[in-house]
DNA sequence: CACATATAAAAGGTCA
DNA sequence: TGACCTTTTATATGTG
């Protein structure tokens, strides 16, 4: 990496479009913390593989020439120079005044975004208590039907980061408060993985928004940089859905795993406190916890989630704990400890005491 | 408080 | 060829 430390004056061509933050990752040689975030200005166009970075401080601007291939992650914000951690508490850029990542503008689009912001709730179902499934994550793939220059994307799109040394996709996040949160992994082939949506409507909105963002990136001379040809129905496929629910009573996981003799179940509390139950039809994986909370994942549709839960519910009832305590985590933990203590008196098998971690 | 453990799923690059 | 990387999300334990 080439890091000349000469101070220069601000280049006249700097505009809000040029404002970015850059994240210097471990191994680049600047710092050895995992992420060292610097408030930076970045100027483009850039020579292949490098970015010219202008760090603003009280003395003026410090020019750095960083090599993208050397582990530099560049992130562009929405008009404000600011440093932020990649996994920190959001809030980056995008004040309401500037255009959001996908300002469809029309009232319809606004309404669509507002609708998409609501988490999808399935149920309650008859004869299943008052259980409702809350969808917490939807993963989908979208095909933009054209190759994409990821360096252009990271330079031009808001809230984009790209570190080819770390991962081969460019990551774009929707963090506008007026639209549903979502994250896209954009690959150079034009394939996009969208995660973080909380409903079908939300993932559809996110796919359309990412397609629009990519299609509107300009090539530096006013024209579009990519010929995006995305059709929602044709090119979007939901790949995974995660939902959570609470059956409202504690569950005897030891009993549940014993009754299934390991054919569906895997329960190793030393490794992970949840029981893992893999249902074959529909193909859904359940994480079942003593507290009565249940996580469902692996589904391709809301219908599969519903079918799987309805099929699972009687089994959960079967292994309902006799002693029902109040549902605070502290009391649940106490109840669990008490239950395992009493279990140890009548069953000497107790694999839990062994700290054999393989 | 951050991170590890575990679950599903896709993408495409890298490495043994 | 398969394992890993990365992203997201709920869940709940333990460790530093």
Automatic annotation (TrEMBL):
The keyword rRNA-binding does not apply. It comes from Ectocarpus siliculosus (Brown alga). GO terms for cellular component: nucleus. GO terms for molecular function: DNA binding. Residues 337-349 have a biased composition (Low complexity). Residues 85-104, 337-358 are annotated as: Disordered. Pfam families: TBP (PF00352). Keywords: DNA-binding, Nucleus, Transcription. The keyword Nucleus applies. One of its GO terms (biological process) is DNA-templated transcription initiation. PANTHER family: TATA-BOX BINDING PROTEIN (PTHR10126). This is TATA-box binding protein. Its main location: nucleus. It is found in: Nucleus. Belongs to the TBP family.
